[in-house]
Design brief:
CATH architecture of the largest domain: 3-Layer(aba) Sandwich
Order of helices and strands: EHEHHEHEHEHEEHEHEHEHEHHH
Largest sheet: 6 strands, parallel
Radius of gyration: 21 Å
Helix content: 25-40%
Low-confidence stretches: none
Strand order of the largest sheet: 2-1-3-4-5-6
Structural class: alpha/beta
CATH superfamily of the largest domain: Glycogen Phosphorylase B
CATH topology of the largest domain: Rossmann fold
CATH class of the largest domain: Alpha Beta
Shape: globular
Length: about 350
């Protein structure tokens, strides 16, 4: 594909000094660049906040959109890729098209389909796009969004070799600080799941949770990636393991990319069938008791744990590396052959 100019509009987090520098927006920017394209990143929330003396997004939204139109006019990108940019209205999208002949617009969403308010906003945005991308491949649930046929596509959570740099699968369990851990919020039934795990594991098993669960502090920036690499295994817990709509096909938060990318052996719900992408590089469990049993088995067989971690790490980087994901997005947006991708493509 010929080199293209690409403008990504999303939350790049200048306000927080880029503490989520490994988010989807940043990984896609790296992926496009490594694939030979030029990228500019427009942080809509930061621009809106900085547009007025009151430092509020709502009051600065209009000025932010004017800046976005101005940038598009002089940069003349081939593609504007929109993340969770809820401050940009539909009139502005049409103005972008008016400024650049042949401009393609696309949107992506990393939230789950059961997030109703988020999905309503994403669906409204997708109506105005040439293509829209979801990190969930459940066609039945996706059909409820009402996005025009042929416009909605699945995309996996990307891994970035410059961000996920650890190789935990090379380290014996005894050399690690923990045998297992979960870092994440404790909302809905997360804390119930964590308590069950903690109470059911062998007494000698070194398990911790953190990252806002049980009123612990949020962990972010490089500290988050470092902490992930301190444990041999990580259960990829849904918010509520008893709600089937939260176990949609191929859905996971970006934790799946972070743990596999760091070489951490990852256990994930069988209902989501993530093994369709990662094969034997993930350990699938059916329920809480099965999860604990499999965590215990890996605790007792460290060679097997390391083997699974190596497979997951290799397949995540090979199959869902940010350049591969970025290339796929471009192929869809410009109607070119995407080649063979190891995931489902069109959702509608």
């Amino acid at each position: 594909m010929q080199p293209k100019r690409i403008l990504i509009v999303g939350n790049f987090g200048r306000k927080d000094l880029f503490r989520r520098y490994f988010n989807m927006e940043s990984k896609l920017a790296n992926g496009f660049i490594r694939a030979g394209h030029h990228v500019l990143c427009f942080s809509d929330r930061d621009h809106a906040r900085e547009a007025t003396i009151f430092r509020t997004q709502k009051l600065g939204a209009r000025k932010m959109q004017e800046k976005l139109v101005e940038l598009t006019a002089h940069y003349r990108p081939a593609l504007v890729l929109i993340g969770h940019a809820d401050l940009v209205d539909e009139v502005t999208y049409q103005r972008l098209r008016d400024k650049v002949s042949g401009l393609r617009l696309a949107a992506f969403c990393v939230d789950a389909l059961f997030r109703k308010a988020t999905m309503q906003r994403f669906s409204a945005r997708a109506q105005l796009m040439d293509a829209a991308f979801l990190t969930t491949a459940d066609r039945q649930q996706a059909a409820l969004l009402g996005i025009p046929a042929g416009r909605l596509f699945f995309v996996p959570n990307p891994v970035d070799s410059s961000m996920e740099t650890a190789r935990v699968f090379e380290m014996p369990r005894e050399a690690l600080r923990l045998d297992g851990q979960f870092l994440g919020t404790g909302i809905e039934r997360r804390e119930d799941q964590i308590e069950f795990i903690r109470n059911s594991l062998p007494a000698s098993y070194r398990f911790e949770s953190g990252g806002k669960a049980f009123a612990t502090e949020r962990v972010d920036s490089t500290t988050f990636l470092d902490r992930l690499a301190e444990a041999a295994v990580c259960p990829n817990l849904p918010l509520d393991d008893l709600k089937t709509e939260q176990l949609a096909y191929l859905y996971s938060s970006d934790r799946i990319a972070q743990t596999l990318g760091q070489g951490v052996t990852t256990l994930t719900t069988a209902a989501s069938r993530l093994s369709d992408i990662y094969e034997d590089g993930v350990v699938e469990y059916s329920d809480r008791a099965d999860l604990v049993a499999k965590m215990t088995a890996l605790y007792e067989d460290d060679v097997r744990r390391m083997q699974i971690g190596e497979i997951g790490h290799r397949l995540a980087h090979e199959r869902t590396g940010c350049s591969k994901v970025a290339d796929y997005i471009l192929s869809v947006c410009f109607g070119e052959s995407e080649g063979v991708v190891p995931w489902p493509s069109a959702l509608n």
